[in-house]
Every structure is written in structure tokens, then in C-alpha cells.
Amino acid sequence: MILCRKMVFILLLTASTAHAGNKLAAPCLGKTPVAAAEKMFKSYRERMLTDPKQLRGLVTGGLMHALSMENQCRMGGELCAVEADPWTGTQDGTIQKPVSFRLLSNDQRSASVAMHYTFALDNSRKEKRVTTLLLERNQAQSCWQLADLLTPAGDSLREVIESSQKEDDDSPLPPPGFGR
Fold first, then answer.
1. pLDDT, mean of residues 71-76
2. What are the sequence ranges of the domains in the chain?
3. Calpha distance 172→42 (Å, rounded)
4. Which end of the chain is more exposed for a tag (fewer CB within 10 A), N or C?
């Protein structure tokens, strides 16, 4: 009888461990602010305005709501809040390598990271620029999430979208960090 109970316990433990191993890990940009900023740029830059669902867990609830509203507007074929590349603040030009990341501040719950790059309008017009990524996390050991993006001119992606929404329908977006 005791042997039978031990076998049942082992089988249940094995089954639950196998099931837990099959779960998809929650998305994570990184355990450090610089790693998170770099991964956001390299892996998710192109999807930021086109498919915010893929950013779930990688951006804060407030930014997710704003990006979803922007995406909904774009799907409707309307003129929307974001008229330029949110990383450069321009409609034309490209970010060229090398791209480097430097920690500006970190208080364990929020951080800012500067992304340094060369911006090229064409082959003859190039200049050094800096975009700032604002990051947040819930707990000291959790992954960092993107809370906002500041263009080289200091324009906030989230504020651009929020101000457009307020003009359109006076429905406020959740405050930063909402729904994390």
C-alpha cells in the first residue's frame, strides 16, 4: 500500500513537472535596463506600431493601451497620432550602425537608457542622435518593461498618443504603470 502511494506521488510529481516545463515562459526584455533597451530596439522596433499584441508583457499597461489605440486608429485607415518614426521623430531617414546603449538612471523600479546612433537622411547628411527609453518594473527582480520612448527632440511617444486621444474623445488613458 505504501509502495503504491509512493508510485502515485512520483507519477503526479512527474506529470506536474512535465506540464510546467511545457508552459511558455513569460516574455522578458531583460534583467538589466541596458539589455532590455537593446532587445526592444533590435527585436521589436518594427512591430511597435503595427502589432502591439506582440508586445504584451514587454511594455507597461499604460503604453500597451496607447499603442493599441494607435493601432486601432491605423487599422481604420485614419490619420493617427504618430506621424513619424517613434524612435527618430522623423518621417524620413534611417538609424545606422553602430547603435550603442548607455544607462542614464536606475532606481531599481524605473530606469532610463540612452540609445546613441547615427541618423542618416541620405549619404551626405548624417548626424549623431540620442533616443531615450524609459523602463519600469514591478519588483526588484522582475524583467524590465518599456514605459515610454523619447525622441531626440524629447517628444514622448505615449504623450503624443494620449494628447491625440484627448482631442478625439476626451477618454483618458490609464496612468503610467497601470495594469502591470
1. 91
2. 26-169
3. 31
4. N
